[in-house]
Hints:
Blueprint: H1 18-86, H2 89-98, H3 118-146
Amino acid sequence: MIVAQRDYNYEYPPYTSEKTGQVKKSKKKKKLKNLALILFVGSLSVMILFRYAVIYQKSIALDKMEENIRYTENLNQQLKAKIAAMSDPVRIEKIAKDKLGMQQPDESQVVYVNVGKIDTVAKNQKPEDKNVERSNFFMRILGVLNR
């Protein structure tokens, strides 16, 4: 048996610098793209963190306002209760008698006043209406003269 020798070609093409220039450019482009991506992601994360910080501050301010509202409403209820206690007619009458020396009027001290009939009041309003009509008439004349 005859063994054929195989022809192995171990010759490699010479190393050229043209490829290194292209590799350097592509590496620079990749580095710039990576840097731009990192800057974009970093700025986006900073904006998101800032937004959450603002939301947190507003939440704290809202809690303080709600606490202030609860305090004011509680104070308002206490003051309403105090007003109700102070405006009790029995208490007012007691203070008037004890501290101010007042007393209920006797029959001889009561004076009844007759205010008149309703028709009288209606008659008193009619002359005012005439004055209004007169003033409207004169205002119309003055308005015509001003034009």
